[in-house]
């Protein structure tokens, strides 16, 4: 799965390198694209027209399923809760938002970063959300109640990405501090 500045999201056959599905998202730039854990849906995010930064697509047909309303600025990163019931987004607007797949309505807005959120990850047990920001921090959140867990993890430069270890006991981060 890839997203591009050519307005498309593409699903690729990893063995042949051929495009299996191409979705014209209508976004000016597709900054992020991700499968639902069971691979039935695709979420795309980026710069779109007013209040249309996140779109959900059928992974087999490429048909639009839902538009998640709430952002007026670009969405940079997306993830799904492991059970597939909650898409999570991070944006240039410094917020993280969670959504309900039954209604496609916004559940919560997590505020705490002072600059763009460039990466999000969910712990393997689904209890902790981590966010990476251009404010030089990584924040851990209680996924159930949306509250920060401790103080932000400080970096000397902006943080672009992070990933939990498979057992959830470690978190690796990537920063512009090299």
Structure description:
Strands 4-5-6-7 form a 4-stranded antiparallel sheet, with no helix packed on it. A 4-stranded antiparallel sheet has the order 8-9-10-11, with no helix packed on it. It has a domain at 1-79. It is globular and about 45 Å long. By secondary structure, it is mainly beta. Helices cover 0% and strands 51% of the residues.
Keywords:
single chain; 178 residues; mainly beta; four-stranded antiparallel sheet; 17 strands; 0% helix; globular
Mean pLDDT: 93
Strand fraction = over 45%
Number of helices: 0
Count of β-strands: 17
Order of H and E elements: EEEEEEEEEEEEEEEEE
Q: Taking strands numbered 1, 2, ... along the chain, how are they ordered across the largest sheet? A: 4-5-6-7
How many strands, which pairing sense, and closed or not: the largest β-sheet?
A: 4 strands, antiparallel
Based on CA atoms alone, the radius of gyration comes out at 16 Å
The low-pLDDT segments are: none
N- to C-terminal separation? 27 Å
How much helix, percentage-wise, in residues?
under 10%
Q: What does the secondary structure layout of this molecule look like, with pairings?
A:
Layout (H helix, E strand, L loop, with lengths): L1 E2 L4 E5 L6 E6 L4 E7 L5 E7 L6 E5 L5 E5 L6 E6 L6 E5 L3 E5 L6 E6 L5 E6 L5 E6 L3 E6 L10 E2 L4 E6 L6 E5 L3
Antiparallel strand pairs: 1-2, 2-3, 4-5, 5-6, 6-7, 8-9, 9-10, 10-11, 12-13, 13-14, 14-15, 16-17
